[in-house]
């Protein structure tokens, strides 16, 4: 007798009420039960379940089998089908911190939605940068014979390909490798920097500062290149004195305020939204209004920051959702893989920090 049954009987003795019957857990419907219900052999059910269209099975027999499957609620053994086909309907996603990063978690959302569109489910492993856990996660996915693996980092950077990953069909997401043939999808940082600067140019600004990051990264180089391109396209000479560097957080943006004011630029593009948030504080301390005195543009479109600053911050969005979706499409061969990383467009989001609001 189980401990649950013993506990129920003891309770019944204490209360004088009959013990409740512990419900039996339903067992999975078997292939044999479907065959008996349809009046056919298990081999016939197997052919129908596996959609063997070339099998010589009468249409009436197929109908009886499918009716029995539906009535009984039979679920095919996915692992058995995987052993036969050599692959599964799973796509793996191994990430170093995407699942715990609010805005970067959109990578998972995009990959999951795109996988479902094509009949696949996503297996997700969040490793928090633990190398041993990463190796185990990839090994597990290989054992499940996943269709392929997306390998993602929470910020755009160059990465080393883990050796077990080479045993699978894989695509790097939000990261890249210089190894020949390594497929990757990354944000178009150059286009993003260009679009951010164009938001300010569109409002007539000609003297535009750029507060870049101090930390080496593809985003640092790409956004600067985009800034220079936008100025060049507008016929404005590049002035290196208008480019400053600061630590890419709120405090870094705040500390950059004095340097910006010394340069006398009425418009500024910040490397990210957190720096722009710090700059807002610094400008206000100097009695300056945004955008009346200084127009400000950020980068990332972190909703918890950009949309809730006063005035709301114009910015450029990192396309995390589309990165995840594009990674699945490249993996499945729906999107062709270019010679280098596929670059995903970073859309501009214009808000009130670049334009003076009309008064009612």
UniProtKB/TrEMBL annotation:
It comes from the Bacteria. The keyword Glycoprotein does not apply. Residues 29-85 form the HTH lacI-type domain. Gene3D superfamilies: 3.40.50.2300, lambda repressor-like DNA-binding domains (1.10.260.40). GO terms for molecular function: DNA-binding transcription factor activity; transcription cis-regulatory region binding. The keyword Repressor applies. InterPro entries: HTH_LacI, LacI/GalR-like_sensor, Lambda_DNA-bd_dom_sf, Peripla_BP_I. Residues 1-26 are annotated as: Disordered. Residues 11-26 have a biased composition (Basic and acidic residues). Keywords: DNA-binding, Repressor, Transcription, Transcription regulation. This is LacI family transcriptional regulator. It holds the Pfam family LacI. SMART domains: HTH_LACI (SM00354).
């Amino acid at each position: 007798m189980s401990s649950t049954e013993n506990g129920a009987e003891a309770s019944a003795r204490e209360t004088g009420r009959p013990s409740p019957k512990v419900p039996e857990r339903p067992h999975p419907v078997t292939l044999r039960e479907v065959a008996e219900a349809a009046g056919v052999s298990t081999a016939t059910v197997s052919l129908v379940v596996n959609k063997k269209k070339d099998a010589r099975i009468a249409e009436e027999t197929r109908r009886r089998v499918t009716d029995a499957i539906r009535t009984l609620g039979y679920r095919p053994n996915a692992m058995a089908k995987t052993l036969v086909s050599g692959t599964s309907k799973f796509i793996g996603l191994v990430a170093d911190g995407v699942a715990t990063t609010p805005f970067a978690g959109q990578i998972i959302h995009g990959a999951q939605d795109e996988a479902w569109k094509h009949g696949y489910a996503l297996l997700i492993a969040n490793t928090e940068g633990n190398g041993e856990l990463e190796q185990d996660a990839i090994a597990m996915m290989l054992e499940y014979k996943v269709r392929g693996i997306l390998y993602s980092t929470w910020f755009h950077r160059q990465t080393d390909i883990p050796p077990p990953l080479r045993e699978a069909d894989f695509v790097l997401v939000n990261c890249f490798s210089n190894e020949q043939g390594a497929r990757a999808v990354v944000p178009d940082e150059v286009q993003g920097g260009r679009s951010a600067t164009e938001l300010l140019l569109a409002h007539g600004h000609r003297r535009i500062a750029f507060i870049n990051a101090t930390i080496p990264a593809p985003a640092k180089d790409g956004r600067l290149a985009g800034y220079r391109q936008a100025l060049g396209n507008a016929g404005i000479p590049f002035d290196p004195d208008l480019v400053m560097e600061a630590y890419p957080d709120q405090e870094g943006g705040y500390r950059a305020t004095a340097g910006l004011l010394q340069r006398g630029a009425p418009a500024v593009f910040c490397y990210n939204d957190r720096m722009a948030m710090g700059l807002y504080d610094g400008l206000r301390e100097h009695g300056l209004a945004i955008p009346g005195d200084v127009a400000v543009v950020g980068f990332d479109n972190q909703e918890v920051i950009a949309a809730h600053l006063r005035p709301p911050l114009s910015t450029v969005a990192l396309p995390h959702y589309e990165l995840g979706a594009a990674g699945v499409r490249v993996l499945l061969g729906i999107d062709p893989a270019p010679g280098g990383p596929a670059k995903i467009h970073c859309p501009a989001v214009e808000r009130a920090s670049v334009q003076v609001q009309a008064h009612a």
